Amino acid sequence: MRVALFVPCYVDQLYPRVGMATLELLERLGCEVEFPEAQTCCGQPMLNSGCDTDAVPLAERFLEIFTGYDAIVAPSGSCVSMVKNHYEHLVHEDPRYEEIRTKIHELCEFLVDVLKIESLPGNFPYVVGLHSSCHGLRELRLASDSERNTPSFNKPRQLLEMIDGVQIATLKRQDECCGFGGTFAVSEEAVSCTMGKDRIADHLQAGTQVLTAGDMSCLMHLAGLIRRDKQPIHVMHIAEILAGYEVPQ
């Protein structure tokens, strides 16, 4: 399978280890991975700020760069949801959009639904707290949420449970927002921080040693609060755990 690796801006600039972990994991599972070097921002920051017109050229550029692959995979639920769910009113008349919309996948979704993997090697002897980001949970349906009376499922958890040694922390509010919300963390700093500290408190009571998620943006927010308050929790993107990376010290 010829897979295009889509790496979000903040991952590329601040957390390149996450991009490398995603690449190594996909190649280990038999994918022929290409990284289109011409890729740019997907336009989510502009759209979230109400600047729809400014997001259109980026959406058009995305279609141009990523058309023609068997699949497009990104270690970010929010960026994938931007393309899959929010490009429609930007580039809905472009005939390439429907192909892109059906071929782009968040990493965990791709591993579970497309590759259908049933086992992963490695050992990770830690209590892992899984944060469900809002975009992945409610827009991509990577897991069931508490407000719906539907059968329970969780694709990221399904993958983590394949790794020896992993214990999943039991949270009191497993699908609550971390408070990041992109520009929300800037415009409503106090509310954002309070929400983030509430999530960290839940992980502390659950005994979380390593906090993980499919969105590095949420983890960036939570890691900042953890670091400032000197809490005993490490933060890792789920791609790093699945790829067998060690816990950063």
TrEMBL record:
* Protein name as catalogued: Fe-S oxidoreductase
Question: Which GO molecular function, any one, fits this protein according to its record?
Answer: oxidoreductase activity
Gene Ontology cellular component annotations, sorted alphabetically: cytosol
Taking every annotated instance into account, which residue ranges of this chain make up the domain Cysteine-rich? 3-83, 128-222
Q: Which organism is it from?
A: Blastopirellula marina
